[in-house]
Structure formats: structure tokens, C-alpha cells
């Protein structure tokens, strides 16, 4: 069934199969992105921890946290896009 206004309509089987395949692909992609997001949060925490442990005469990366922060924003944006598509 497909929502059309306030009414549900039956989809022909090929359309239903295509819709189910698209939903399964989005579900798989969402699962992958959530795993990556969680790993990125772990990584950012480790970067901060390592920066705090470095002796003052050893420099850490100036850009690692910013670059992975940008990556995290992209991943979270894709997660939000998928969640929006599913809820509309």
C-alpha cells in the first residue's frame, strides 16, 4: 500500500518489490552509517585523549580532529537524510 493523501492505495507487485528493495538498501546504508558515526565519536575521543597525554615538546596533529569532525558532520547529515525520507 502506498499513502496518497490520507488514503492508502495498493501497489502493483513490481512497484512494491522496488519499494521494498529501496527500503532495505536504506536500512543497510543507515546501519553502516550509524556504525561509522559511533566509530568516529570514539576516534574523536581518542584524539583528544592522546593530545592530552603528549609531552609539551611533542606536537600532535593540528587538523585530525577538524577533518574527522567534518567527516562526522557528513555522516550525520546522511543519517538525517535517510531518517527524513523514511518518515515522509
Can you describe what's shown?
The chain has helices at about 15-55, 65-85; strands at about 1-5, 5-10. Strand 1 (about 1-5) and strand 2 (about 5-10) form a beta hairpin. The relative contact order is 0.12. Helices cover about 75% and strands about 5% of the residues. The chain starts with a strand and ends with a helix. It is rod-shaped and about 70 Å long. Strands 1-2 form a two-stranded antiparallel ribbon. With about 90 residues, the chain is mainly alpha-helical.
Q: Can you summarize this structure?
A:
By secondary structure, the chain is mainly alpha-helical.
Distance between the termini: 15 Å
Largest sheet: 2 strands, antiparallel
What is the average of the pLDDT values? 89
Q: Roughly how many Å is the radius of gyration? A: 21 Å
**Main sheet: strand order:** 1-2
What's the helical proportion of residues?
Answer: over 70%
Query: How many extended strands?
Result: 2
Order of helices and strands: EEHH
Unreliable runs, pLDDT <50, ≥5 residues?
A: none
Q: What general form does the structure show?
A: rod-shaped
Q: How large a portion of the residues is in β-strands, by DSSP E? A: 5-15%
Judged by helices, strands and strand pairing, the structural class is: mainly alpha
Number of helices: 2
Summary tags:
single chain, 88 residues, mainly alpha, two-stranded antiparallel sheet, 2 strands, 74% helix, rod-shaped
Amino acid at each position: 500500500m502506498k499513502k496518497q493523501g490520507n488514503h492508502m492505495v495498493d501497489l502493483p507487485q513490481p512497484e512494491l518489490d522496488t519499494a521494498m528493495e529501496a527500503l532495505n538498501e536504506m536500512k543497510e546504508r543507515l546501519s553502516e552509517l550509524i556504525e561509522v558515526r559511533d566509530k568516529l565519536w570514539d576516534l574523536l575521543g581518542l584524539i583528544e585523549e592522546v593530545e592530552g597525554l603528549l609531552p609539551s615538546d611533542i606536537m600532535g596533529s593540528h587538523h585530525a580532529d577538524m577533518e574527522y569532525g567534518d567527516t562526522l558532520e557528513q555522516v550525520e547529515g546522511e543519517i538525517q537524510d535517510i531518517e527524513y525520507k523514511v518518515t515522509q
